[in-house]
Amino acid sequence: MKFGQVPVAEAEGTILAHSLHVGGRRIAKGTELTSIDLADLNADGFSTVTVARLEAGDVHENEAALALVRKIVPDPVAQRVRISGAGAGRVNLYAETCGVVQLDPARLQAVNEVDPMISIATVPNWHRVDQGGMIATIKIISYAVPQAAVQRAGEVAGGALKIIAPVYGSATLIETRVNADAPSDKGRAAMAGRLHRMGLELSPRVVVPHREEELAQAIMDAPGELVLILTGSATSDPRDVAPQALRVAGGEVIRFGMPVDPGNLLFLGSLGDKPVVGLPGCARSPALNGADWVLERVICGIDVSSRDIAAMGVGGLLKEIPTRPMPRRSGG
C-alpha cells in the first residue's frame, strides 16, 4: 500500500486518510474518493490530498479483518461466539452465552507478531463473561495490508478462542455457626449473586454447627450439583474442620490455600463426581477474590488442578477489601 499526498486530480478511487469538510459536508477518513468528492475538493481550493492507495496483493482493511476472524472463529456455534460486521478495519467478537473465555495465548501472540498492522486484543484468559459481553476486537490498523500477511496470520489463528458455558444448574451453600446465632445473610446474598450471573440456583439454606460430624453430614446430604462451604470460623489448616469434614464424608481435598489475595484460605475438593469448594471469608463480599477464579472454572466443568491454582499467583494480588480484618498496610 502507498500512503501520502497526491494531486486531487489523481485521487479518484484512493482512500482518504484524514476526514475533510468540503462543499458543506464531511468526507470521512477511509472513504473511497469519487469524482464528486474530487469536484468538491477542487471547488474548496484543495490541490493535494493525503490518501492510501492499494497495490497489487493488498487487501482492504474490512476484508482483511473479516478474513482473519473467519480463521479465529471457524465455527461460531461451537465456539459460542458472535461476530460483528466490519467497519474501519475492525470486527468485534461477543459471547453468545455466559461462561468463561478460553484462549490460546501462544496462537494469539503469533497473530500479533505477523505484521504490526494486524492486531487482535482480547480479555484475559479464563475471564468470566456475561452473554453478549465483548471478548475480542480484531483491528487492521492501516487501510490495507498484504494478502500474504493476512494468510500467515490466519494460518496460526485457528480456533484461538472460545466460550465455555456452565455445566451445572444448582449449588448448595453450607454455612457453619460457631455459637447459637445464625450467620448474617450477607455471605449467602453475595454467593447467590455470583451463581445467578452464571445461571445457577441456590438450594434452600443450610446452617450447621462448626463441627466435623455435622458438617460432614450436611456435605453428604447437599442436593446441589455443586457444594460450597462458608465457615463461621476461618479455615486455617488443611486438617481444620471444613476440609476434614469433607474427608469424613468420603471426599478428597485437592488443594488447600491459594496464592491469590484476597482468597488465600480457599480449599478445593470433591465428593465423588460433585465438586466441593471451601470458600474464604472474603467470599462474603461481592468484590472479586480468588474464589471467583476457581468457582467460575469449576461451574463451567473445567478441571482445576493444584498446579492451576498455583499459577494464579501471577496477577493474584487483587484490590483490597475494605472490611478485611487485617489490611495489607496501615493508614499511617
What report would you give on this structure?
This protein has about 325 residues and is of the alpha+beta class. The protein has three domains: about 1-55, Molybdopterin biosynthesis moea protein, domain 2 (Alpha-Beta Complex), CATH 3.90.105.10; about 60-165, Alpha-Beta Complex (Aldehyde Oxidoreductase, domain 3), CATH 3.90.1170; about 170-310, MoaB/Mog-like domain (Molybdenum Cofactor Biosythetic Enzyme, Chain A). The protein has ten helices and 21 strands. The strands form six sheets. Strands 15, 16, 17, 18, 19, 20 and 21 form a seven-stranded mixed sheet that branches. A four-stranded antiparallel sheet has the order 7-8-12-10. The chain has a three-stranded antiparallel sheet with strand order 1-5-2, with no helix packed on it. α2 packs parallel to α5, α4 (about 105-115) runs antiparallel to α5 and α7 (about 210-220) packs across α8. About 40% of the residues are buried. The mean pLDDT is about 95.
CATH topology description of the largest domain: Molybdenum Cofactor Biosythetic Enzyme, Chain A
Shape: elongated
CATH class of the largest domain: Alpha Beta
Helix content percent band = 25-40%
> Which radius of gyration do the C-alpha atoms yield?
28 Å
Beta-strand residue fraction = 25-35%
H/I helix tally:
10
Tell me the count of domains: 3
> What structural category characterises the helix and strand content?
alpha+beta
CATH superfamily of the largest domain: MoaB/Mog-like domain
Task: Note poorly predicted spans.
Answer: none
- C-alpha termini separation: 59 Å
How many β-strands, per DSSP? 21
Q: Quick one: biggest sheet?
A: 7 strands, mixed
Mean pLDDT: 95
